[in-house]
Amino acid sequence: MRERPPVAEPLPRPVVDTHCHLDVVDRHLGEGPGPDEALALARDAGITRVVQVGCDVASSQWAADFADTHPDVVAAVALHPNDVPRIAERDGRAGLDAAYAAIEALAGRSSVRAVGETGLDYYRTRDDDARALQHESFRRHIDMAKRLDRTLVIHDRDAHADILRILDEEGAPARVVFHCFSGDAAMAVHCSDRGWLCSFAGVVTYKNADDLREALRVLPREAILVETDAPYLTPAPHRGAVNASYLIPHTVRAMADVRGEPVEQLCDDLWANSQRAFGPL
After folding, report:
1. Which CATH number is 15-278's, of 3.40.50.720, 3.20.20.140, 3.40.50.300, 3.30.2170.10?
2. How far is 81 from 116, CA to CA, in rounded Å?
3. pTM here?
4. If you average pLDDT over every residue of the chain, what do you get?
């Protein structure tokens, strides 16, 4: 077991971790804090709210149930694009349709503010048939978000052009968040021009992330969010350790440096944008 990083120096204003997986942190190599401990540590660092994200029916059920009993948590529910082909292969079309129905039922609960993470992942899914299932799933989740008035949280890995094309074809919901934004400055402008938000994870602190930092620089204040994607994407200087919400101050301070802004101003912007993206938190 690796040593757990210490709690980061608290932020001067409260900030929301807009994307984490509390149900995974505590079992990731046996090193991370459990969900309730993770929330307590986050509060110590100035992270007073989190968005807990589901990736399949089981984790989405967990997210909604956990948010029901924790006032500092709201949930997002969906079938992750990498899971959709696996569900189809294991359970067939009937099983996949049943999974969509279960997600929609969860998305209607008051503790659930978003449909996500959904989208496309061409890094792990290369087969054409599997990608076709991802496209279908993304369209179904877009429709679900619009009908239920939920925020759409997008997973986009090596699939920028098709993500943007499908959003245009289907018509985007009122609120769209690009989770762990990975595009360049031109894509950031494309998103902000449409009122979509770009959420930055610990990747923005990595030495090889110059294009991502340039994207952060060009975004207007109202288009930026921050997240952990815990237990993954741990920010420097703790890259390689298990991530948790209490480490987000490292990311926020790095973002403020990139933008040449006071940390206090960025915290206020992140808070306001989180409220706009996910409702009162």
Report:
1. 3.20.20.140
2. 10
3. 0.97
4. 96
